[in-house]
Amino acid sequence: MMGLGVWLHELVSPAMEAIAPYLPGDVFPFFFTLDMFQRVLVASFVITVIAGVLGSFLLIRNMALIGDGIAHVTFGGVAVSMVLAGVPTLPMATFFAVVAAVLIFELQDRGLLEGDTAIAIMMTGALAFGLVALRIWGEGITANVERFLYGNVLFVDDASLDWICTVGLVALLLLGAMYKGLLAAAVDPVAARVQGIPVRAIGLTFSIVTAVVVVLMVKIIGALLVTALLVSPAATAQQVGKSFRSCVLWSQFFGLMSVLIGIYLSAEEDTGAGAMIALVAAVIFLVVVVSKSIAVRLGPAVNQRTQ
Amino acid sequence: MGDVAQSSSDPILEVENVTVRRNKTDVIRDVNLVIHPGEFVGVVGPNGGGKSTLMQTVLGILRPVSGRIKLAGGPPNSRQAFGKMAWVSQAAAHIPKNIRLTVRELVSLGLLNHNNWFIPGRSTSAQTDKAIAMVGLSHLADRDVNNLSGGERQRAVIARALAGEAEFLLLDEPMVGMDRASRQSLLQLLDNFCHEHNKTILMISHDVAAMRQTAHRMVYLEEQIWFDGPPPSFPSVEEIASLRGIQDVHGGHHYDHAAEHCGGADHATPPQVVVQKEAE
Question: Is residue A304 part of a domain?
Fold first, then answer.
């Protein structure tokens, strides 16, 4: 049976090959012609589209660092599956991530801890647990935390692509269904609750969706890139967007730009693709912020508050 | 208490002998309050007098240790109550600063209820636009709420409450940080809702003068309800003080606990607070 990712890949492949001749660079066009590199682009694009929605909500819920936090938490799960030989990695990592996300949500929801603190405790706790578990029971297994956390965006096989697209589609459907409820809960949770919106259930579902998506993305493209694609484009979007909806679209646009420019530069300069994409996302943010403040200073009539 | 013009319809809110405790002290004690459809009730009282506590209890956020609350026939947090009421918080304090949100987006959130919140994309823009027009913000409908003045933002939040079918609006200090003109027009707006749209309003305010001028009924809350009646007979600062003094001494049937609790602790501070707020 053909997976969703492979199907999508075959769908867009002819179009990618068609535009390849018009693209700059010596290596970059190969990303549009070679199968293996096409998969990288398709995966990055799908991730960027989800990250644009997820990141916009994370930002207004003050959870920008949860991507990084969850990524470190999953290391605990990975270590456990290494120690207990035969336990598959992805389900164990997902289990750890979901438990941590639920705990973080409960700590925030009950007002016991502010967002960042809860994330920091879960992140260091689970990471440390993983390291200690490997040390005590691992018997010679050496933990390569770095490799785990930074992934390799340039290696996406058919199975990974299928996973990304399937989980991505489910996540997008859930986020789409909860869109208004999530927005209402972030803007004014009390008013939303009084209206009959299940604010708690929505928040919990959102945390779990976030955890599952982040685990999958970390496995494939690495923690650095997940956080970069979740946060930087959404933050840039807030500088230019006028409504929440437009911020989501801008966020996806800036994410796609980061991916394209990042892959182009890394291909031509022969650097790590993940790091370059993250760097480009941060540079885009800086450029937008600086040019916006210059524009405001030069033209007082533009972008001014009413009254 | 009790000299309230009763309407023939069933009450929309019944608060019966409600006591709410926080950190082992009673914040409000033996509070009784009945509100009928179409009424505009203003709750005034000093800071820490329990106004917000009463509101949060009505909303179902806090639970009373004793007493009973009926909202539109059901307890708070029930299906009957949901959708009948809408909450207007201090908007300036509550809309996150790190969000881009147009007035239209904000107001359309008011259309959500327990049945339709998960149905994506079914925006009933006509209702949204009508609510925006009612508060006079049509020209700013596509503006970011964080770029509006305090008064405009408060109107936008009220429009959100009006967009749904809520009959009962609960407002917490909606006029904080507004200039005199905006306060006047907001009060007029609320007054219209009661008269022309038969909405019921329960509003917390520090602004005794404004409440006196607009509300149909005023409630003075300081741990207990010391006055509940029409604005013309709302007591002066001195009268409130003496009212409380008399109650403390005689310990009327409602105030048995008050007599033990209050003692000499509050002869000076409460009237001062009221004076301060009136002068604001």
Answer: no
